[in-house]
Description:
Blueprint: E1 2-3, E2 9-10, H1 15-22, H2 53-62, E3 65-73, E4 81-89
Antiparallel strand pairs: 1-2, 3-4
Amino acid sequence: MTETQAGYAVYTPTLRERFWRKLGFRFHLGEDSEETVPWSGWMRTETRLCLGLADRLRILVGGELRMSTSVDMDTPSPSKTFTRFDWEILPPGDPRRRS
C-alpha cells in the first residue's frame, strides 16, 4: 500500500497475486445498494474453508460443494447475533444436485 496526498491508501497487487489472478483465483466483492448508507446496520461474516486432500478429491469426483450461512439476531434492535456456517460435499447421483 502506498500513501497518497488525499489521506487514503492505494493497494497495488504483487507479482505473485497478479500471477494467481491470471489463473482464475479471484476475489469478488458484491455491489452495495444505492439506497443504503455505508455501515449503517450491516453485519459482515467471513468464512474460510481449509479442505484436506480427501475433501478435495471428493469435490473433484462429486463436483458440487454446498455452503450456507444462517444468521440469528434478536429483534427489533439486534444486540446479539449468532452465525452458523454449514457445508456439505454432495456425492455423485445425489437427488439434491442442481445438474
